[in-house]
Amino acid sequence: MTATLLPNARIASTGIQIYLGSDVGKPDIRTVRVYRGR
What is the per-residue pLDDT for 20? Predict the structure, then answer.
């Protein structure tokens, strides 16, 4: 039997992030800027 430790991780993703349009359901738009506030 193998035990696996899964740490609780908090990801700080604030600011403007750029995604491909196809990644966010907008294939007609090349890039999409998403603002993630606090």
Answer: 92
What does pTM read for this prediction?
0.53
The per-residue pLDDT for range 9-27, each reduced to its tens digit, is 666 677 888 999 999 899 9
Q: Could you give the CA distance from residue 25 to residue 10 in angstroms, rounded to a whole number? A: 26
Specify the number of domains making up the chain: 1
Range of the domain at 31: 14-38
**DSSP result, the chain:** --------------EEEEEEGGGGT-TTSSEEEEEE--
**Is position 4 within any domain?**
no
At 32, the amino acid letter reads: V
